[in-house]
Specification:
five-stranded antiparallel sheet, mainly beta, Lipocalin, 39% strand, 2 domains
């Protein structure tokens, strides 16, 4: 076969190659690359911590750049609880509209190997196969959902339930077959803000037994709400004041419907700065650890803005198991667990810099930590 190898053809080919490589180089070196950041709260799944990440995709800088033409990407970050060093991201959505970057975009929950996500559309992500399904896939399997699925309200407890806008119909979607089954409309249908403050999972103290209380108090607390003869506060919310506190153990009269304090005694003379105790995942009782019986105490390394969050494992007699420095300056979320607890927040602020968001997985048995940046 004859090929035309004239100088003109060779020159044109060279020009095309130069333009191609110039364009690729400009895209790689000149285009603006943004950093992926967390969107909404993280969610604990049976075997992972999950977090939605939002990223503005690369673009070439121009004098008259129109931000409305930016493209956005939503990814699902998955960090393994079996091996906290392992992580992966799965892309959910690429689009030009900003309306995916809103509070309604959130992780609904997980069933088995499937994670349900609401992000302008309903997504099901299979963590084993990495397959991502959307509303269009569900309506093909369930034509009865086609009328309202795109505008449905999603409820999740042990399974996903989609509710019609008029709240007259509800369907549970199976996480294995993705077939829908008609179910009663759940009560209190509506959007619940998942952005629970970390203070809701921290407290000043709680019951070790029906006649025994354990907590952290200031001298002012001891002289006001925790005097002998007083009833034990029902909730013992965390005190947000940046004060030093000490460990106390209370003996209670449990014969009354609401126990009264018979005695409140200090366990040690150690001061813990801005400390609190961690509640269980339900946010009701103290998080209790076994072998030996222990609780988790959060406190600060110092009083200034450069201080970090420390976590200490304590036995009820005040004996310390371990203390870990999470490196978190501002705590934003706590995901309690008896085996691996997660703390999410930002590193201490540095002038003229945006503090880095991080996720810290802490082994409650050993105090060992694994830290993941939430910048991508």
């Amino acid at each position: 076969m004859y090929y035309n190898k004239s100088p003109l053809v060779i020159a044109l080919a060279a020009v095309v190659l130069v333009l191609l490589f110039t364009g690729l180089a400009a895209w790689h070196f000149v285009s603006n690359k943004s950093t992926g950041i967390p969107l909404g709260p993280a969610v604990r799944l049976p075997h992972h911590i999950s977090q939605i990440l939002q990223t503005t995709e690369r673009y070439l800088p121009t004098l008259h750049r129109n931000p409305d033409k930016d493209r956005f990407r939503l990814d699902l970050l998955l960090i393994s609880l079996t091996d906290p060093t392992k992580q992966e991201t799965i892309t959910l959505l690429r689009q030009q509209q900003r309306n995916a970057l809103q509070p309604m975009t959130k992780i609904l929950g997980g069933t088995g190997n499937v994670v349900w996500v609401q992000a302008l559309d309903l997504f099901a992500v299979n963590l084993e196969t990495k397959r991502v399904l959307r509303s269009s896939d569900f309506t093909k399997l369930n034509p009865e959902l086609a009328v309202f699925l795109t505008s449905a309200r999603c409820e999740f407890k042990d399974q996903l339930i989609v509710v019609s806008p008029d709240q007259r119909k509800a369907y549970a979607i199976d996480a294995t077959t993705f077939k829908a089954e008609s179910v009663p409309v759940p009560k209190n249908v509506g959007w619940i803000n998942p952005n629970a403050t970390p203070e809701s999972l921290l407290c000043a103290g709680g019951l070790l037994a029906s006649n025994e209380w354990f907590g952290v108090l200031t001298a002012k607390d001891l002289a006001s709400d925790f005097k002998t003869g007083f009833r034990v506060p029902l909730d013992c919310p965390v005190n947000l004041a940046n004060e030093s506190r000490r460990l106390y153990r209370g003996r209670l009269d449990a014969s009354a419907p609401r126990p009264r304090i018979e005695a409140m005694e200090p366990i040690s003379d150690l001061d813990y700065q801005n400390c609190a105790l961690v509640r269980d995942a339900k946010g009701v009782a103290l998080l209790r650890l076994a072998t030996p019986d222990s609780v988790l105490l959060t406190h600060r390394s110092s009083t200034d803005s450069g201080g970090t969050l420390l976590v200490t494992r304590l036995e009820p007699n005040g004996k310390t198991g371990w203390t870990a420095d999470t490196g978190i300056g501002l705590l934003e979320q706590v995901l309690p667990d008896e085996r691996i607890i997660a703390f999410i927040g930002t590193r201490p602020a540095v002038p003229n810099k945006v503090p880095e968001p991080i996720l810290v997985l802490l082994n409650t048995s050993t105090g060992g930590m694994t830290t993941h940046s939430l910048w991508r």
